[in-house]
Specification:
The protein is of the alpha/beta class and 401 residues long. The chain contains 10 helices and 14 strands. The radius of gyration is 23 Å and the shape is elongated. It has 2 domains: 281 residues, Zn peptidases (Aminopeptidase, 3-Layer(aba) Sandwich); 111 residues, Alpha-Beta Plaits (2-Layer Sandwich), CATH 3.30.70.360. Helix 2 crosses helix 10 and helix 6 packs antiparallel against helix 7. The longest helix is centred in the last third of the chain and has 22 residues. The two termini are 14 Å apart. The strands form 3 sheets. The protein has an 8-stranded mixed β-sheet with strand order 1-2-4-3-5-14-6-13, with helices on both faces.
């Protein structure tokens, strides 16, 4: 794609700044959890139809929305944005603060949706010149519910069949105004783990007459982290994190049951197998030595690792360099242990890659990581870039594939 076309796309993104910001802030104020994005989906469908897109399908993969921009040929590529929010109380004091207690767009999905809506408007205006068609995929349930798989099961890869797909993700590790790209492994294998430790209730004044499940759970937590640090290959990328612990009924009664819910993240198979083996076999011995019993459940339907396709990465890298200058395109040096169900598109055999939309701005204080209660961005600065990049990537993919 020539420099003039790329410059024109960026100019169109900047021209749409006001509506991009308005869309993102509306979504930010009205977050919805995974697979319950009914209002979000309705908002997206309405905006697509207002743009003039006549083929808009709702209810794909339960609450997903798909739009199709028809170009000069039937060959089709896809762009994807995720729509769900997190169960988190927002701490930002901004005019567009979440209106819904305990829910927040703390991972940038509101920005992803706004960027794809912007890209849709840009591409629709150029539809007579598009070398093919573009499928716009607004996906529910990325935060653990596997919404991508639901949409795939509902036929999103077909009608028409896509040749390649791309997505973006807001990233506080990449400076605002820049695009991050990575080849190969991008995100990790994820598995949910639930551990139940069963002790014996007794009066708090006579702990010797019972088995304190909370005390045993604390030892188990230390043992798990000690095992990973000292009994697995130190160069394997893996971790176990527990985000929920429940146990006990009152302050003067030994808890007879504690439940720990967490996640296993890994890239190398050897490290993952060592962790699951320890949890299922050796941890039981430790818990038993303290008089308690153990139940372990590992959900094997966690997300697979996400692997970026080299050709799609080449397209994104060339497009972003041409649009923003090579100095504003950075290599993401390492994969991260986050999970991303965008992996299912690649697993289905579709050339797929995700790029990073930089949002870090230390001068303005936008440095909070994703999944934190203070996550935010300078949307006026970054959304026009994201929208233009998604539009340009779709055009470049049509030219390449």
């Amino acid at each position: 794609m020539n420099q003039r076309t790329l410059a024109g796309l960026l100019a169109e993104g900047r021209k749409r700044r006001r509506e991009l910001v308005a869309w993102r802030r509306h979504l930010h104020m009205n977050p919805e959890p995974s697979m319950q994005e009914h209002e979000t989906a309705a908002f997206v469908a309405e905006r697509l139809r207002e743009t003039g897109i006549d083929r808009v399908m709702e209810g794909i993969g339960q609450t997903g929305v798909v739009g199709l921009i028809r170009g000069q040929s039937s060959k089709t590529v896809g762009l994807r944005a995720d729509m769900d929010a997190l169960e988190l109380e927002e701490a930002n004091r901004v005019p567009y603060q979440s209106k819904r207690p305990g829910l927040m767009h703390a991972c940038g999905h509101d920005a992803h949706v706004a960027c794809l809506l912007g890209a849709a408007a840009i591409l629709h205006a150029r539809r007579a010149r598009l070398p093919g068609s573009v499928k716009l995929i607004f996906q529910p349930g990325e935060e653990g519910a596997g919404g991508a798989r639901h949409m795939i099961d509902d036929g999103v890869l077909r009608r028409p069949q896509m040749r390649a797909i791309a997505a973006l993700h807001a990233d506080t590790q990449v400076d605002a105004g820049k695009i991050g790209v990575r080849r190969g492994y991008d995100t990790a294998q994820t598995e949910d783990v639930r551990i139940v430790i069963m002790g014996k209730a007794a009066h708090a004044a006579r702990p010797d007459q019972g088995v304190d499940a909370i005390a045993v759970a604390s030892q188990a937590l230390v043992a798990i982290q000690q095992f990973i640090a000292r009994h697995t290959n130190s160069v394997d990328r893996k971790l176990v994190t527990f985000g929920i612990i429940r146990g006990g009924t009152r302050s003067n009664v030994l808890a007879d049951r504690v439940e720990l819910t967490g996640t296993i993240r890994s890239l190398e198979t050897e490290g993952r197998e060592a962790i699951t083996r320890f949890l299922r076999r050796d941890l039981r011995k430790l818990v038993g030595a303290m008089g308690a019993r153990l139940r372990v459940k590992i959900e094997k339907d966690g997300y697979p690792p996400s692997v970026n396709d080299d050709t799609v990465v080449d397209v994104i890298s060339a497009t972003s360099s041409g649009m923003l200058g090579a100095e504003n395109v950075v290599d993401v040096p390492k994969p991260n242990l986050g999970g991303e169900d965008f992996a299912y598109f690649g697993l289905a055999g579709l050339p797929a890659a995700m790029f990073r939309l930089g949002i870090r701005d230390e001068k303005k204080g936008f440095t909070s990581p994703g999944h934190s209660s203070t996550f935010d961005m300078d949307d006026r600065r970054v959304l026009p870039i994201g929208a233009a990049m998604m539009a340009a990537t779709a055009i470049a993919l049509l030219q390449e594939f």
